[in-house]
Amino acid sequence: MPLDQWTQVDRYFADLFAPADPVLTTVLESSRAAGLPAINVSPNQGKLLLLLARLLNARNILEIGTLAGYSTIWLARGLAPGGRVVTLEVDPQCAEIAQKNFVHAGLAETIELRLGPALDTLPKLAAEGHGPFDLVFIDADKPSNPAYWEWALQLTRPGSLIVADNVVRDGAVVDAQSVDPKVQGTRRMLELMAADPRVSATALQTVGIKGYDGFAIALVTKGKQF
Ligand code: SAH
Ligand code: DHB
Ligand code: MG
């Protein structure tokens, strides 16, 4: 059973590199207690987000899709001193739980949660002069991925990184005829990423605690050489 083996290896790596701590444990418990779906990133994926943030010396991170704030806290822990995360969430129950988790994590001043549909909040952020963000993590409703991709490009600069979650979906992504709007939204985003001369991008499959899925990663270049 490869999935079982992959899960065991993922647990082994997580115990080594991303061990649970009281804050993250509380986030997952609050999520479970509220009946939220267990679709947060895995510990090792969270650690990867932290490392990417550190590599970028990120001072300004945007996340689309908060849930209970698990990935948000990993991202915040990767910030350079004085940095901030803006995270967007449409569901008031998620937002309330996440906000409590940020307070409990001592990150209430570091993380700004904006409640509302991200496609309403993103133009407001732009109008308010937010950005450019050093890192954008796209992880909300998948049918909107093409629109989130365009906003992520609007709100970044050369050298920024855009990461999108759940681009594999148990392999469903290869089905061009899929009637699943999540698959179609993700495929369209991947095609936009691949064709856009303003970025250099790739996608990675992941297996483990969260099953079989993956990340797409795009470095914003906008004509610059890196
Ligand atoms: N990033 C989180 C998981 C996010 S799950 C983590 O890894 O811990 C996806 C989240 O996107 C859910 O909380 C869902 O309510 C939110 N979402 C769905 N549609 C949205 C929209 N239109 N605008 C903002 N958030 C949305
Ligand atoms: C789904 C969303 C996620 O962000 C995730 O990590 C896994 C699944 C979903 O909408 O099915
Ligand atoms: Mg996700």
| Topology order in helix (H) and strand (E) letters | HHHEHEHEHEHEHEE
Strand order, largest beta sheet: 3-2-1-4-5-7-6
Terminal CA distance reads 41 Å
Strand segment tally: 7
Describe the structure.
The protein has 226 residues and is α/β, with parallel strands linked by helices. The protein is 43% helix and 23% strand. The protein contains eight helices and seven strands. It has a seven-stranded mixed beta sheet, with helices on both faces. Helix 3 (43-55) runs parallel beside helix 4, helix 6 packs parallel to helix 7 and helix 7 (145-154) packs parallel to helix 8. The protein is globular and about 45 Å long. The N and C termini lie far apart (41 Å). The site of S-adenosyl-L-homocysteine has 19 residues, from helix 4 and strand 2. Magnesium ion binds at residues 39, 139, 165-166.
Layout of strands and helices, then pairs:
Elements: H1 2-17, H2 22-33, H3 43-55, E1 60-64, H4 70-77, E2 84-89, H5 92-104, E3 111-115, H6 118-127, E4 133-138, H7 145-154, E5 156-165, H8 181-195, E6 199-208, E7 211-220
Parallel strand pairs: 1-2, 1-4, 2-3, 4-5
Antiparallel strand pairs: 5-7, 6-7
Helix pairs in contact: 2-5, 3-4, 6-7, 7-8
Bound molecules: S-adenosyl-L-homocysteine (SAH), 3,4-dihydroxybenzoic acid and magnesium ion.
